[in-house]
């Protein structure tokens, strides 16, 4: 028989839940305080599932959750919480709770389904579903524990119609995570719309979000719906929320508090049911302390707080990310040598996943169609000038960027040729002439990349400075290295 533990200080709720689940054939035990909970011998009495209220008169639910997960790690747990403690409930998920449900219980069928799903041991299926959804939106996670926990927490909160605030450095994948939340939510069949609050001026952003009436301002030749109306049943993603003006912040607060807004130039109040996800690359609480962001709006946005780790803190996922990026190029069969991967892993990636993606794209674009393996020496021709490559003095390799290393390469190559010329061994002339061609290619590319860097990446300007056509420049870049 299935054993279910219920911990709630409200005896009426305890009686109701006991009656509900006893009728379903469960063996239910109800306790009304932390003292009663600790009187249970968890070493002898096993529970398959536990429903724990977050607020108890003599303790808190998180303490009981940690205790039961320590004594009975296989016990499935659901946290019961009021709206005001949802943030703590999300923390409970990070501590190992399987889910949470809001009190009062408006949907008894949902409550029964949550318990039934837990006891049917759907965790394995859930893990597969999470991986499938993550791959669909391009959210790649591998061995990094922090990313794994983040993904599971995001999956849990996706099921709830609550606001989420995502923080993380530029390029970490905040929008990708928001898309994952949308696809994992009951709104997945509705629209997902994103807007960058820092990329649009205040008047245009107001019109974009709330819509406008015809004639509301110069150029408003017709009525236009705003994103809060268009995405009313879906998800609205507000990127760089910290860049929103004070005026926009006030209007956003109104939407979050009352779920209503007025289009620009209108006196008509419209309602919205959009699910809001906001993101920022700033520490938003610091902006609140500096009076640059409204405190009341911050707490409205920060119902659930998710932080995406920078790439330098999840380097073990880089090989998987590289494979994912390479799959964007059908027909391209390229891999990276061990030395190249070591060089890539030694770099800190200040631009995070976005920088890695641009780097791999650059490598693919500049590689010869017949080249299948990218070596550490090839990395010097990318835009990633800070990648340290292994220094192995060889006669025909350029070990890094810069004039010093080009000089070092030429000296090594000259010494190599002279040693062959002065040596007594047989000379393989064809091989020697091939090395001369490699010299021409390597030196030519070194000059091209130096000029491209000086020209800010502008190929037309680089071709002009080199006195060659842009077609010739592209041809030389695509020569075999």
TrEMBL record:
Coiled-coil region list:
422-449
> Which keywords does UniProt give here?
ATP-binding, Coiled coil, DNA-binding, Nucleotide-binding, Phosphoprotein, Transcription, Transcription regulation
Its GO biological process terms? phosphorelay signal transduction system; regulation of DNA-templated transcription
Q: Which domain of life is it from?
A: Bacteria
Q: Which CDD domains match?
A: AAA
According to the UniProt entry, which residues carry 4-aspartylphosphate? 53
Q: Where is the signal peptide?
A: none
Please report the stretch or stretches of sequence annotated as the Sigma-54 factor interaction domain: 140-365
Indicate the segments forming the Response regulatory domain, all copies: 3-118
Query: Would I find Repressor among this entry's keywords?
Result: no
A GO molecular function assigned to this protein is: ATP binding
Could you confirm whether the keyword Ubl conjugation appears in this record? no
In terms of InterPro entries, this protein maps to: AAA+_ATPase (IPR003593), AAA_lid_NorR (IPR058031), CheY-like_superfamily (IPR011006), HTH_Fis (IPR002197), P-loop_NTPase (IPR027417), Sig_transdc_resp-reg_receiver (IPR001789), Sigma_54_int (IPR002078), Sigma_54_int_dom_ATP-bd_1 (IPR025662)
PROSITE patterns annotated for this entry? RESPONSE_REGULATORY (PS50110), SIGMA54_INTERACT_1 (PS00675), SIGMA54_INTERACT_2 (PS00676), SIGMA54_INTERACT_3 (PS00688), SIGMA54_INTERACT_4 (PS50045)
Q: What is this protein called?
A: Transcriptional regulator
Q: Which organism is it from?
A: Weizmannia acidilactici
